[in-house]
Amino acid sequence: MVRHVLESHAMKVTGPSGPSSAQGPRAARASGGFSVPSAGSAAGATATTSASAPSAVTDVSALMALQGVEDVTERRRRAIRRGGGLLDRLEELKLALLTGEAGEGALDRLTRTLREERPVDADEGLNNLLDQIDLRAAVELAKADLRRSAA
């Protein structure tokens, strides 16, 4: 008996009109994906379910809008992460040069990291520090270009 009750109230999603009853009379459709339920208990359940659909769309839209907004803390985190990455690439280059390697891989990684967009932070001290790191990386890349052209 429980199974019969569940089957009579089964719902399925059909295209842009949203959920509809799996059994029973069909709902009349209007333009824009809105459906007008016909008489019956299954149609009443359809109307209730359809009413919650715009709420779900609004919730998803709100989440997408929030993901597009970058707060000050996240911008600061990205700026610090980029600066730390540049320092790591400079360290790789230093180790490559000390071991007698050309360090081409380290130079490529340094170039890619330097080209990444750097978020501007409200803290002037952090911006000055990141400027110095960027300058040091640019100097190392210029020195590598001089070595290449001299060879």
Brief characterization of the structure:
This protein has 151 residues and is mainly α.
Average per-residue pLDDT, rounded, comes to 74
Shape: elongated
Enumerate the spans where pLDDT stays under 50 for 5 or more consecutive residues.
1-11
Let me know the largest β-sheet: 2 strands, antiparallel
- Measured as a percent range, the helix fraction is 55-70%
Strand content: 5-15%
Counting copies of identical and different chains, the oligomeric state is: single chain
**Integer count of domains:** 2
Number of strands: 4
Biggest sheet: strands side by side, in what order?
Answer: 1-2
Structural class: mainly alpha
Radius of gyration of CA atoms, rounded to a whole number: 30 Å
How far apart are the first and last residues' alpha carbons, in Å?
Answer: 88 Å
Number of helices: 5
The H/E string reads HEEEEHHHH
Pfam families: FliX (PF10768)
Biased composition (Basic and acidic residues): 1-10
Protein name: Flagellar assembly regulator FliX
Region (Disordered): 1-56
Can you walk me through this structure?
By secondary structure, the chain is mainly alpha-helical. It folds into 2 domains: 2-68, no CATH class; 72-150. The chain is built from 5 helices and 4 strands; from the N terminus they run H-E-E-E-E-H-H-H-H. The chain has helices spanning 2-8, 41-68, 72-98, 104-115, 124-150; strands at 11-13, 19-21, 28-29, 35-36. The strands form 2 sheets. It has a two-stranded antiparallel sheet with strand order 1-2. The protein has a two-stranded antiparallel ribbon with strand order 3-4. Strand 3 (28-29) and strand 4 (35-36) form a beta hairpin. Helix 3 (72-98) runs antiparallel to helix 4, helix 3 (72-98) runs parallel beside helix 5 (124-150) and helix 4 (104-115) runs antiparallel to helix 5. The protein is elongated and about 85 Å long. Residues 1-11 have low confidence and may be disordered. It comes from Brevundimonas denitrificans. Residues 1-10 have a biased composition (Basic and acidic residues). Residues 1-56 are annotated as: Disordered. Pfam families: FliX. This is Flagellar assembly regulator FliX.
